[in-house]
Amino acid sequence: FRHRKTINSEDPIESPHDYSEIDIVSEGFDLFSKEVLNRRLLFARNKGLDIADSSDSFLRSLSLVEEAALLGANRVASKVLKDLDISDSDVYDFFYSMNPGKRYFLEYWREKESLNDIQGIARDWKCNPEQWDTRFGNHGFASLFWLSRGNKGVRIKKYYCGFSTFLSMSGGNIRYFLDLIDASIKRESEEGRVGGALSISPKSQTLGAKDVGKRRLDQLEDLSENGLQIKRLVLAIGKVFFEYARSPLGKAPETTSFVLSGSAQDIVDIRSLLLDGVSHLAFEAQERNKLTTPEEVKDEEFRLHRIFSAFFEISHRKKRRTSFAASDLLAVLGDRPAGAISGLLKDVDGLMSDSNDLPEQLGFFANFYDRDR
Q1: From first to last of its 373 residues, what are the pLDDT tens digits of the chain?
Q2: N or C: which end of the chain has fewer CB within 10 A?
Q3: Which strands, in side-by-side order, build the sheet including 283-287?
Q4: How far is it, in rounded angstroms, from Cα 311 to Cα 307?
Q5: What is the per-residue DSSP string for 111-167?
Q6: Nearest-10 crossing angle of helices 163-170, 29-46
């Protein structure tokens, strides 16, 4: 809801007296959106278009191992073998026979936990494969973001594809869901079709999702009198979570939401701006169920709207949260945004990427990120 007031501002409309409120996400949005897509695919086929016959085959997805391979897991997996002691044949052979799209995870875990004895870690995996399978299941998705570090010149450093991913990124908004698909179709047509029934490649879906995020970001300035400030907050918060995603050291995986801490007045000031952003789908907010630190006020938990996930190359999944000082978020609105972003990252050393290392889409805002650091 953006407005609940009638022309007479003293007489707002309320639930349940004036309307019934339905949370479409909890009322089967996944089934609804799949049916919308499948019916459109059926309509296209009835018009003679050679096109995939279901949402899952139309929006092609990648398994974790497949995506890891595309993101450079082979390079890291080769390093793992070089670092292992070949004389420890049981351990070496175990990892030699392992799919490189999974073997790389050993190096990720070594760095994440700041461990030096890679042979010891490898031996532990060999002796406890079920425990490591669970660990890979819990942290594998987060490790995909880490894989992209240092891959300069690579156009795609994280893939956003598949029906379930687009469903999550749309945040319960059918217009966003269809916009993601439309932008992906456009990208696929630019790539050139090879043959067979039309479906959308993971690459085209990813580029389309970035296009939608960029377009939505550009629109924020015109949606509210606070539009420019909301856009600056989105750019700053997105950059922080972008840095978190690529540097696992000292951070919980997939940190994508935040709560406010600091003085009561600072929280009031920034909260009103964030809630305005929520009403214009720049942010999402939900009541949190437990405190992160004693200094926090038990209030909303905020996150960027998931439509921006591909643009900032962060997780679209609802996972873990951090705490942001309200004063640092307010400082983002001043004339030194880069310094304020550094303040938001102060709990983890060395995270601020150089502007030359930013993804192409974030590079457009290098002046904002570097301004008066």
Answers
A1: 566 777 776 778 887 888 887 776 667 889 999 999 999 999 999 999 999 989 999 999 999 999 999 999 999 999 999 999 999 999 999 999 999 999 999 999 998 888 889 999 999 999 999 999 999 999 999 999 999 776 666 779 999 999 999 999 999 899 999 999 999 999 999 887 666 788 999 999 999 999 999 999 999 998 888 999 999 999 999 999 998 888 877 667 788 999 999 999 999 999 999 999 999 999 999 876 555 555 555 578 999 999 999 999 999 988 788 999 999 999 999 988 888 888 888 755 555 666 556 777 887 787 788 766 5
A2: N
A3: 283-287, 300-304, 255-261, 320-325
A4: 8
A5: HHTT---HHHHHHHHHH-HHHHHHHHHHHHHHHHHHHTTT-TT-S-SS---SHHHHH
A6: 120
Q: Looking at this protein, which amino acid is placed at residue 210?
A: K
The answer to whether 139 and 124 have CB atoms below 8 angstroms apart is no
CA distances from 284 to 37, 157, 170, 250, 336 (A): 25, 25, 12, 26, 26
* Global pTM exceeds 0.70: yes
Q: How many beta carbons lie within 10 A of that of residue 11, not counting itself?
A: 10
* Cβ proximity of 257 and 244 under 8 Å: no
